[in-house]
């Protein structure tokens, strides 16, 4: 982790409750930070959709996704919680994934119990590995992380496969294996959220997804239900894709009704740091050397 960056663990402790938005490339990471985000979530669904134009069904693995993570982390000064899928293999792969992401500056990771090839958590057709296999991966991740500050979330997708009771048992097993926080994917009612919030005294993630299997609440309601993070992992990419589509249609129609809704060229230059680069050029470039001779 960069020395300038507060860890995810410390940021969560400082904030108490966080709303995370999903970064899918370096630009979206900059937008999230400039908009006041204290941390961000790197969503596998969003990354593979944006970078490769494919669905999140196991078509891309660590080598592909880690390149995007490196870009995202390098573009921002806020900590990232990275979706690490199932660790891309067995316990050896989990350790490889943890340590390589740590070297990139990632201070929080989430591992799931889906059987590969995985699918987005709100898609049908998922399956899960045995509890002991998932617990072994969490034990490997937490025992072999390079920095004890690195935060490890355990995610279970068992609610949709085997029911909430099994998901709760899996979550408990992951805590016993050393997980720092939990994400029980896709509860199907307010009562299920309440049950999860009462059962666990560790940081809990809720995942509001339009069109998904869970009811959607406000961030304040998630906090009241006992959750510590409301993670809008795919909201930015859904909005961005819709905005691009609508703006193209607006121009093609000749209406230009949406022209004022887009970021100005000047705002965009500021967002990507052009003034700072111009300052470097003036300070260290040939023009500055010529002026001093």
Descriptive overview:
The protein has an eight-stranded parallel beta sheet. With 293 residues, the protein is an alpha/beta fold. The mean pLDDT is 93. It has helices spanning 8-15, 26-34, 44-52, 62-74, 91-104, 131-144, 158-162, 164-176, 190-199, 219-224, 235-253, 265-271, 274-284, 286-292; strands at 18-23, 40-42, 80-83, 108-112, 151-156, 181-184, 205-206, 229-232. It starts with 7 loop residues before the first helix and ends with a helix. The chain contains 14 helices and eight strands. 37% of the residues are buried. β1, α2 and β2 form a beta-alpha-beta unit.
Question: What would the keywords be for this entry?
Answer:
alpha/beta; 12% strand; eight-stranded parallel beta sheet; 293 residues
**In order across it, which strands form the biggest sheet?**
6-5-4-3-2-1-8-7
Task: Report on the biggest sheet.
Answer: 8 strands, parallel
Structural class: alpha/beta
Low-confidence stretches: none
Strand content: 5-15%
- What is the oligomer described by this structure? single chain
SSE blueprint:
Elements lengths: L7 H8 L2 E6 L2 H9 L5 E3 L1 H9 L9 H13 L5 E4 L7 H14 L3 E5 L18 H14 L6 E6 L1 H5 L1 H13 L4 E4 L5 H10 L5 E2 L12 H6 L4 E4 L2 H19 L11 H7 L2 H11 L1 H7 L1
Helix pairs in contact: 2-4, 5-6, 6-8, 13-14
Q: TL;DR?
A:
The protein is α/β, with parallel strands linked by helices and 293 residues long. The protein is built from 14 helices and eight strands. The chain is 49% helix and 12% strand.
